[in-house]
């Protein structure tokens, strides 16, 4: 699905500025967004899997940290993207409320097509993640066993303190 988004984004750059090109541009934009939207739930389900894996691997629960850092990174990405867009518009000599130069139009088109494809391509590294349902189930079982053991240890310590 992500590959379709990348290909449609890059293709948008090469669409000519004609009436039919405009329709094709919008169609590719919608297609890319649609397939990116299909991929979002998969990305969101990976967060708890990564938290479980981290707890299993490092013997430390970090779910709260990941929840906080996820919100922070989304806010930071929004701020950076706004600044990046403004910087690119300055670089391509965008002038509001006038007919844009050819260079400005190419720069804006690059910003809307190739640049997002590059950023999305970086996310392809996730395909190297080898978490399977079976592996995740084994991790969960071991975590549950460890949690029960830790709970018993904590109860024993509590009983000694009270006694």
TrEMBL record:
GO terms for cellular component: plasma membrane. SUPFAM superfamilies: MFS general substrate transporter (SSF103473). It comes from the Bacteria. Pfam families: MFS_2. The chain crosses the membrane at residues 29-51, 72-94, 106-129. The keyword Transmembrane applies. Keywords: Membrane, Sugar transport, Transmembrane, Transmembrane helix, Transport. GO terms for molecular function: symporter activity. The keyword RNA-binding does not apply. One of its GO terms (biological process) is carbohydrate transport. This is Uncharacterized protein. It comes from Oenococcus oeni.
